[in-house]
Amino acid sequence: MAVSSTSSNSISNLSAKTGMGGLVSGMDIDSLVEKMTATSRQKILKQKQNVQKLEWKQTAYRSVTTALKEFQTKYLDVLSKSNFRSTAFFNTIKAASSSDAVSVTSTSAAITGNIKIDSITQLATNQTITMAEGATATKELTSSGSVRSFIDGLEAGDSISLTLDGRVRTITFDSDFVNAVQNGTLTDADKAQLFESKFQSLINTAFGSDGSNSVISVSVNSDKLTFSAEGSRLTLSSVNDNDTLTKLGFTSGQSNKIVLGNYLSNQNLKTPMTASSDGYYRFEINGEEFEFDNTATLSAVIEKINSSKAGVTISYSSLNDRFTMTAKESGSGDNITISDKDGSNLMKVLGLSEDSGAVSTAGVNAILKVNGQTISRSSNSFELDGVKLTLNKTTDEAVTLTMTNDATSLKDTIKSFVEDYNAMISLVNGLITEKANSDYQPLSDEEKSELSETEIKNWETKAKSGILKGDSLLRDISSKLHSSMLGISVNDFSLYSMGITSAGYTENGKLEINEEKLEAALETKGSEIRNLFTEIGGIGTSLNNIITNATKTSGVKGSRGTLVEAAGVENTISQTENSIYEQIKRTNKTITTLQSRLTNEETRLWKRFTAMETAINGLNTQSSILSQFSSNS
Questions:
Q1: What residues contact 491, with CB distance under 8 A and at least 6 apart?
Q2: pLDDT tens, 547-562?
Q3: 431 and 552 co-located in one domain
């Protein structure tokens, strides 16, 4: 590759080419000016090469930052499944249950062995409070208008919409229906009876019937129309802004059950609602206070209670038209206390307060016999001898819980941990020890134009080599990582104790594993391995601190990680707040100044050469005139 990165013509284009270019003297002025400004051009080229080196250095630093953070995320982050700082990760005890009556998982405190559950006589339950009677004032929907008036004003095409437990149907009165009920030969009573019969037929066609009973019943009494749907939610709605429903004496959205989306002021509740003197409904559940006004919906009330610290959930069943409150905490005891405040009565209206006649069912504890001893627990999920149990059902048959040691998965993860550590430390130490090629400097644009892409790539690979050779920042990180891995012990237990040692001086800081020793340690030294990595002074915490101190991107400038302060991280504020970025800015400013000086220097030289060309031209003219005089004489 015949390229010299220090050639004097690396920046060959003249920036201030003005004047006569040797037309009179015959001299190559371009070449002369370029040679006379070669020193200035070399200064510019040198600074551009410095910028390129800084950019390569920044990229190399960032590659280390990325490698460190990837290792930290995989093995040291609290959200990682293989978090070496978590005691739970080192739990090699696997628990199994002989029956689906009990679910079991082990904790880090579990030990090998068996637990025998002789019987489960009772599961823990949650206290509930349920209103004694239905919440809705009326289970039937009765019109406020006159059926006779509606019949007289009925027109073909009039429609209403009915929703039954989510099934929506449109009832349309056609001309046959209208003509029949408006027959002038019928009495008002006959018209009403015929209207009821034909309307019921339309309903049955739309929703069907249960044998001899209609799913939705229609009746006319005392000139009023009534809908009923026992055990179901029935809602009436207008169709395309049609006023048919209004003519019948109903409102759109009217239902025979509570509509949770309606305002408190617009609920069809059996017990009249009373607010406090300032218009609010206030109450207290388990010491947690609540406050609502008439513009709140029942769904908003329920949502706020359920998401609060009151420790209860409230629900409404349209099937039995009742509200129920359930304690989140199971077991015996008074886990729900309710009281209305300031004269308001929302809890009473919902049938949940003591003075509303609410039915309270106390919670009970789980009762089981373990290894011959009867025990009681307030929850169906609890921990026993390092094992988490969940009781699923009662049983008279014995259930055996078996805890066995299974270190296979932990062994594989530890091997991956060492492999990824080796890759990370090899990157760091490789950059520190990489040989520098002083003969290969960054290429100028002119030099690149003479080479193929492959030649440029090969050249720059050699030019980048050793860009961080002997770097003190990387040496410090490497030294700390090495000390953490091989220098830390907890209660005289170290990586060496579990078969992990240095791979030797020539392996550039890598570790190697003796798998037999590792397997033996996992079988017999599980707690020691766990403590080595998870204790405050252990390997996990130490590695995490080292990486954080190098790669932290949060905080203000000056408080971030050492690598971030040096080179920044893309897509963070540190991208333009780092020492290399500042060096590049200063160097580019120097380049601008040098280029300005070069332009001035070229201009000055061109003026001198132009003056010379002008003078020579004048002398040539005088010589020509003198020659003419001489020849005439």
A1: 528, 531
A2: 999 999 999 999 999 9
A3: yes
542 and 424 fall within a common domain: yes
Whether 69 and 171 share a structural domain: no
3-state DSSP of 180-239 = HHCCCCCCHHHHHHHHHHHHHHHHHHHHCEECCEECCEEEEECCEEEEECCCCCEEEECC
Let me know whether 389 and 456 are in one domain: no
Indicate the residue among 361, 376, 392 that finishes a domain.
361
Domain membership of residue 26 (yes or no) is no
Please report, for the chain, how many H helices and E strands are present, in that order. Answer: 17, 25
Answer yes or no: are the C-beta atoms of 502 and 486 closer than 8 Å: yes
Q: Would you say residue 347 lies in a domain?
A: yes
* DSSP-based three-state secondary structure for 530: helix
**Which domain, by its residues, includes 379?**
93-124+365-405
How many other C-beta atoms can be found within 10 angstroms of the C-beta atom of residue 309?
8
Contact 442, 463 (CB under 8 A): yes
Question: Tokens 């009920």 map to which residue?
Answer: 181
pLDDT in tens, 15-30: 555 555 555 566 777 7
The count of structural domains within the chain is: 4
How many CB atoms neighbour CB 352 within 10 A? 25
| Per-residue three-class SS string for 549-615 | HHHCCCCCCCCCCHHHHHHCCCCCHHHHCCHHHHHHHHHHHHHHHHHHHHHHHHHHHHHHHHHHHHH
Do 418 and 357 belong together in one domain? no
> Which residues touch 430 (CB under 8 Å, ≥6 apart)?
508
The 10s digit of each residue's pLDDT in 607-633 is 888 788 787 777 777 777 777 766 665
